Amino acid sequence: MTAPALELKNVAKTYRVRQGLFGKPKPLKAVNDVSLTLRKGEVLGLVGESGCGKSTLAKILLGLEPPTAGEVLVDGQAIIGQDRLALARRIQPIFQDPYSSLNPRKTIADIVSLPLRVHSIGDAKSRDKAVRETLELVGLPARVLNTYPSQMSGGQRQRVAIARALIMRPEIIICDEPTSALDVSVQSQILNLLNALRAEFGLAYLFISHDLAVVEHLATRVAVMYLGRIVEEADVADLFDAPRHPYTRALLNSVLTPEPGLGIPDTQLGAAYPNPINPPSGCHFHPRCPFATDHCKAQAPRAVPRAGGHVECHLHDPQSPMYRADFTV
Q1: Domain tally for the chain?
Q2: Of 185, 195, 196, 292, which is most buried with the most CB atoms under 10 A?
Q3: Phi and psi based region of residue 41 (left: phi greater than 0; alpha: psi -120 to 50; beta: remaining)
């Protein structure tokens, strides 16, 4: 059986955070026992509120942060101990803000060719050819080669960032909210471009976003993250049609619609996000859950298998006294 493109096994990341000038450092579990699989050629959407651990997980996958516990495997091989340059050939990032992810003092030709120069691939002539071909792939003309990022629009800059990630022909691309800083009309162009590139090169994307409409358009599977844990994972159609976890339903209810007069949707989550340094007992979601009971406060839910993934909720666990076979959120 072919190994997954990317696999996380019980990955955790804990920081020590000091509260106040004289306070003792306390543990903050930014990522808490996360297991995920990204298959070749698929798009795994990772969604959740700001602060839930999505970007920390991205840094771990890119080798920028070592995990406190667990393993990250690429094609079945642990990334710990691998040569950083070899890993960079296989995994590349596309960052959120195209205005800060590009060096303003370098030309587009310098920016896109940088990975080739760092890895000592080819000579000047072959690098120039590769840069021109890659820019053409992302929809940019050769005339931008000698321009600077400040002379380009946000959408054009993000195309440059995609070209820089693509020029090494990696297997996996970590997309950390790559369209959130762009206008809606430009977002759709970038998403269509990412889809086309995936089809042409067989790329696997981990697509991190808080925009569920974008995730529904691009992803094949979705993982929902809350306080460092994956509380639900499923195929994209199943998750949007029949969410199992109350938090997933709240996120879906938060999506704005163009319907006039509907106003801002009420997610029923309240304005306060739990303190990750002092998380709630039992199920971490219970203070915000309309279905929570004393059992939720005392006992953390286990991962219950579902089509395409799992869900962590007592209401869906046949071994829980709260189990309801006909429950839907």
Answers
A1: 1
A2: 292
A3: left
* pTM, rounded to two decimals: 0.91
Burial class (CB in 10 A: 0-12, 13-18, 19+), 254: middle
3-state SS, 16-41, equals EEECCCCCCEEEEEEEEEEEEEECCC
Residue 238 CA to residue 244 CA, distance in Å, equals 10
**Do the domain assignments include residue 178?**
no
For residues 289 and 226, is the Cβ–Cβ distance under 8 A? no
CB 91, CB 171: distance < 8 Å: yes
Query: Does the residue 244 lie in any domain?
Result: yes
| Alpha helix positions (H), the chain | 54-61, 84-90, 108-118, 124-137, 154-166, 184-201, 212-218, 236-241, 246-253, 294-298
Render pLDDT for 120-130 as a digit per residue (tens, 0 to 9).
999 999 999 99
Would you state the structure tokens that stand for residue 55, as one six-digit string?
A: 């970007």
What is the sign, positive or negative, of the torsion defined by CA atoms of 118, 122, 123, 125?
negative
Q: Are 128 and 95 in contact (CB under 8 A)?
A: no
Q: Whole domain around residue 308: which residue ranges? A: 220-329
Report the amino acid identity of residue 261. Answer: G
Count CB neighbours of 300 within 10 A. 13
pLDDT digits (tens, 9 = 90+) for 74-129: 988 888 878 888 888 999 999 888 888 899 999 999 999 999 999 999 999 999 99
CB 93 within 8 A of CB 165: yes
In a domain, 19, yes or no: no
d(CA 173, CA 198): 10
* Residue 311 CB-half CA count within 13 A: 23
Determine the Cα–Cα distance for residues 125 and 128; give it in Å rounded to an integer.
5
> CA-to-CA distance for 302 and 324, rounded, in angstroms?
15
Do residues 314 and 308 make contact, with C-beta atoms less than 8 angstroms apart?
no
Indicate the length of the chain as a whole number: 329
Q: What amino acid is encoded at 105 in this protein?
A: R
